[in-house]
Design a protein that fits this description.
This protein has a three-stranded parallel sheet. The protein has a two-stranded antiparallel sheet with strand order 3-4. The protein is 52% helix and 13% strand. With 164 residues, the chain is of the alpha/beta class.
């Protein structure tokens, strides 16, 4: 493939279906960037949304897993089998203590580790983040809150879901 200049800007919705960047699309993007002079950039607000969405997703997974393990304990508690969860082997009734960050809601370190993972996978450097221009940001927030175009209606929950 011949080299050429290209800037690719990543949006939050690209992370929704594959937060761990393990799918073919992400692998193809990484390969394309290696073979060309393409540059990957990300608006700072997208970075913040990715962080929030990740914590929301793993929080939901944790609640589901803890609930399932609690139900399993009810049926097999007499033998207390081991289960691999969150990188370790635990007795079924010990899993809540194993994920202290998720259980207590103190997910700052977990979120930081995820962002570091994303930076590494996408080879992002400080120069690759597009800062928020405060000259227009206040107007965008006002439009989003009041559902003024491009923010269509009450169903729009995030700035990233604007309709053009």
């Amino acid at each position: 493939m011949s080299k050429h200049e290209c800037t690719i800007v990543i949006d939050t919705n690209q992370f929704c279906s594959d937060m761990m960047l393990s799918g073919l699309r992400w692998k193809s993007l990484a390969e394309y960037i290696k073979k060309t002079d393409a540059c990957l950039q990300m608006p700072r607000i997208v970075w913040q949304e990715i962080y929030r969405n990740y914590l929301k997703t793993i929080g939901s997974h944790y609640i589901n897993a803890a609930s399932a393990i609690e139900k399993l304990n009810h049926h097999v508690g007499f033998s207390s089998p081991k289960v691999n969860f969150w990188g370790g082997s635990f007795q079924m009734n010990d899993v809540r203590g194993a994920c202290t960050e998720l259980a207590t809601g103190d997910t700052n370190e977990l979120g930081k580790a995820y962002l570091a993972y994303i930076k590494g996978k996408l080879n992002l450097k400080a120069k690759d983040f597009i800062e928020i221009d405060s000259a227009w940001f206040d107007e965008i927030v006002e439009r989003a809150i009041n559902h003024v175009k491009p923010f269509a209606d009450e169903s729009d929950k995030e700035i990233g879901r604007a309709h053009v």
